[in-house]
Protein: HNH endonuclease
Amino acid sequence: MPIRPENRWLYPIDWDQLSGTVRFGRAGSRCEACARPHLKRVAHLGDGRWWDTAVGCWRTGHGRRIRRKVAFALESVRTTYVVLACAHLDHDPGNSAQDNLRALCQRCHMLNDAAEHRWQRWWNGFRHRALRDLYEDPRITRERIAHRE
Structure:
């Protein structure tokens, strides 16, 4: 995922090299959580299970092989293009210690950041309501404004 320009200063100068070392050197171009391969199109069932073409078996959302037969409807199979990103486990871009970085695919990165995204969504709503309370006249409702126009 590209770094927003306003957040670029939070990352170390050598972030591209550091990220590449984690994604391709340590992780071997595979997601460290589910083992999906980088820059490959992967068939999946939408619940985390995906088809590993290199081995010829289904895998769980945690990368473990599924030994039993997987029953599914053919129309439920979807494909996705996997791109690895280097994720900060503690969500602090300033902490670039090797044990804080993991190579994750889009799905695993979103699962890792889900709590942070929920908090950010709550914080944005809170700020919006606080600004509205500060600057809007409570005696004027939206219906009255629409009625005037």
Remarks:
- Strands lie at 41-44, 50-52, 57-59, 78-81, 85-88, 101-104.
- The mean pLDDT is 88.
- The helical segments are 15-26, 106-135, 142-148.
